[in-house]
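Weekly modeling sync, notes
Attendees: S.R. (lead), two postdocs, one rotation student

Agenda item 3: backlog of single-chain predictions. S.R. asked that every request posted to the team notebook include the full sequence so nobody has to chase files. The rotation student volunteered to paste the first one in as an example of the format we agreed on. Action items at the bottom.

Example entry:
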Amino acid sequence: MRLVGVRCDVGPQRGIGHVMRCLALAEELQARGLTVEFICDAHTVPWAAAQIAARGITVRPAVWTSADHVEVLSRYDAVVFDSYDLDAVVYPAVRRTGVPTLAIVDGDLRGAEADVLLDQNLAAELDHPVLPPDAVRLAGLEYVLIRDEIRALRPVDPPAARQVAVPKVFAFFGGTDAFGAGPAVTRALVATGVPFDVTVVAPTPELAAQVAAVSSQVRVVGPTDQLAAAVREADLVLSASGTSTWELLCLGATAGLVCVVDNQVMGYERAIATGTAAGVGALSELRADPTAAAAVLKRLLTDPAERARLATAGWQLVDGQGRMRVADALLHLIS
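Predicted structure, as returned to the notebook:
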């Protein structure tokens, strides 16, 4: 039985984006008969731990030194890295052991070294970073890692315009909403002055209270396993410009993106420039003054043709098959 180890970041401040995209690849590897184990601190975010456990995947505690990585990861037939936090010396140390490695990156390699480097971001194929010796790079939305629950609900046909008196809005900002975007975006929605029916995901009681304090008309829920279904039912989805963006496009959602942290700037700007999502603004700007964001949201809430145009553009870019292409590359290394 082939065994693949996944070393990824997760935590209350780091969020769960690394875990979720690694789970998509893990699902594909499991479907091909491989066994997958995660090496991460999943216990720090119980919802993420539950997602991993639901797929029958064993979790081993995260390690941090290069020596510990060599000791722990040498038992695997291949290793997947997805981390912003690892010391750059870890990657070559593991690679020198001869274990095939794949590293998921977002633009800046951050010192990552592997046999295969995966940058699944929009227009990443146009970038030409200096690669480690003998490394191969997979780049662009052709390689986006999409989970089973998203793939199962991807529309067969392009999204059509829906005429509704009161648009349904679904807002979520990662598994932890580490930067507290929910309350700020809710205030911008209220500032539009037009009717809407909104559900906001608030992962903590503190955030839930802050969102509810903005308006009594807001429906506040905790992290949900029915995320894809909620996205499909919504006329407008508001989210951080992170790894979930590509899932929204795959689902044919009308996506309004918020740039909540600096490492999201590139993906945010490219998504807006290609017309696949609407830019609601940077979180710091929303907090200072929601006026500009409210203008963008008002247009999205009142223009069904614009919502359909954005949804169709995104749906055409992400076909949900990227994880198969990545798994092919990883299995080629193993064989």
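Discussion: group reviewed the output briefly. The domain at 151-317 is CATH 3.40.50.2000 (Rossmann fold).
Action items: rotation student to repeat for the remaining queue; S.R. to check formatting next week.
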